[in-house]
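Running this now, will post back.
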Amino acid sequence: MATKYVWPLATAALVVLAGVALLIWPFALHTNVGGWTSATTSDFWSGLGVIVVGLLMVMGWLTGLQQELVRAGVIEVRRREPATVPPQASAPQAGMPGYGTPSANADLDQLLRPLAETVLRDLSAQLAAKEGRGGGGPVA
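Update: finished.
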């Protein structure tokens, strides 16, 4: 049953390895003396193309093997149930587009206040340090 997929998968794996070899050979055999020669470029891009074709072959044969195993009942396909979305407590109020409800803005202001105060303290300290040094150069 599934043995008819062994040789094509093995062949596809060898094709991928041949592509990897094409990528590596110019560097392993030091045939790229003087930088990226035309032979190095040709081997590199050919190897990349062979790898892509080999991976497509592997994916195709593995998909065929999976489908045959599902048909034979060897493996079982699990169906995902759609996640249930809980209904919102209240619909957003109409207001300016891009801005939340007034209560959401107040909550956001309350959450961001400590951050803004910390940034202000840090900037004030950096400014004081800069003025203490004589005001030269950027602050590190």
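The longest helix spans residues 38-72. More later if anyone needs it.
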